[in-house]
């Protein structure tokens, strides 16, 4: 009887060990992917840092020297987004397939992290009145995983500016509005459809709605002729939820 009890106990220990291993496999895979992704991002940032801008002002058709190395690696590169003091410091991609960089890395490998990207219709160089950068809200804080820190007004006060470099131009934007949205709601404002305002009424409709929706008053205002940068990611709090940051380009 004693021997049977020991065998039963040993069997239970082996079973529990197997269950533990099975449970830890997805945790280990997630950790591996997270580390792999961060190493890739570090590589991209090192390529960026390894190039310094030439003296003088570049021509409008001349790629910024600091982006040349990255552009040679992948000519889908559209620019680089940085919010200083945060984890957001990444390339922004653009190609004909708007869904491609949802599921592919900078090096065109299948990747659940994807890349930050703009839709094919977005005109970031002219620029149009607005363009939208999309990115996954990753649980480990990568991509736009920390964008919703802007839900805190205190965080906003410490991170009021956003830097975005197109291939040809360095730009600075100041945060204008921060809000949540549920895109399937009947009365939800379709911020994601706004790219160009040819008339002042179109501009005012976008501007007044994003100001109305803002979680707090940033004190930043805009007028017809100003251009915007919009950052959009999923909100994990609600089904079909989005978290959105709208910023206005600072005049030189």
Description:
With 252 residues, the protein is an alpha+beta fold. The protein has one domain (65-249): Sortase, Chain: A (Beta Barrel), CATH 2.40.260. Helices cover 31% and strands 21% of the residues. The chain is built from 4 helices and 8 strands. The protein has helices at residues 2-49, 65-73, 153-158, 200-213; strands at 77-82, 89-93, 116-117, 130-134, 161-166, 170-182, 228-234, 241-249. An 8-stranded mixed β-sheet has the order 3-2-1-5-6-8-7-4. Helix 1 crosses helix 2 (65-73). The chain is globular, with a radius of gyration of 23 Å.
Number of domains: 1
CATH C-level: Mainly Beta
Radius of gyration (CA) equals 23 Å
Distance between the termini: 86 Å
Give a brief rundown of this model.
By secondary structure, the protein is of the alpha+beta class. Helix content is 31%, strand content 21%. It has one domain (65-249): Beta Barrel (Sortase, Chain: A), CATH 2.40.260.10.
Sequence-ordered SSE layout with sheet pairings:
Elements: H1 2-49, H2 65-73, E1 77-82, E2 89-93, E3 116-117, E4 130-134, H3 153-158, E5 161-166, E6 170-182, H4 200-213, E7 228-234, E8 241-249
Parallel strand pairs: 2-3, 4-7
Antiparallel strand pairs: 1-2, 1-5, 5-6, 6-8, 7-8
Could you list some keywords that capture this structure?
about 250 residues; eight-stranded mixed β-sheet; Sortase, Chain: A; alpha+beta; about 20% strand; 4 helices; about 30% helix
């Amino acid at each position: 009887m004693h021997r049977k009890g020991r065998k039963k106990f040993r069997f239970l220990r082996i079973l529990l060990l197997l269950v533990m291993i099975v449970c830890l496999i997805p945790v280990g895979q997630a950790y591996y992917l997270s580390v792999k992704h961060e190493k890739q991002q570090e590589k991209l940032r090192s390529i960026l840092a390894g190039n310094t801008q030439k003296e003088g002002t570049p021509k409008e058709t001349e790629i910024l020297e600091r982006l040349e190395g990255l552009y040679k690696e992948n000519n889908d590169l559209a620019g680089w987004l940085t919010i200083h003091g945060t984890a957001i410091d990444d390339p922004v991609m653009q190609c004909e397939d708007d869904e491609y960089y949802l599921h592919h890395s900078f090096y065109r490998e299948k990747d659940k992290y994807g890349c930050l990207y703009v839709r094919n219709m977005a005109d970031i160089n002219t620029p149009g009145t607005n363009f939208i950068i999309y990115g996954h809200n990753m649980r480990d804080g990568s991509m736009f995983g920390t964008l919703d820190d802007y839900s805190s007004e205190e965080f906003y006060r410490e991170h009021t500016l956003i830097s975005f470099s197109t291939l040809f131009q360095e730009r600075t934007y100041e945060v204008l509005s921060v809000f949540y949205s549920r895109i399937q709601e009947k009365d939800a404002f379709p911020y994601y459809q706004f790219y160009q305002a040819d008339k002042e009424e179109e501009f005012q409709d976008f501007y007044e709605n994003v100001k109305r929706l803002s979680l707090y008053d940033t004190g930043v205002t805009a007028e017809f002729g100003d251009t915007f940068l919009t950052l959009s990611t999923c909100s994990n709090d609600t089904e079909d939820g989005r978290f959105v940051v709208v910023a206005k380009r600072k005049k030189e």
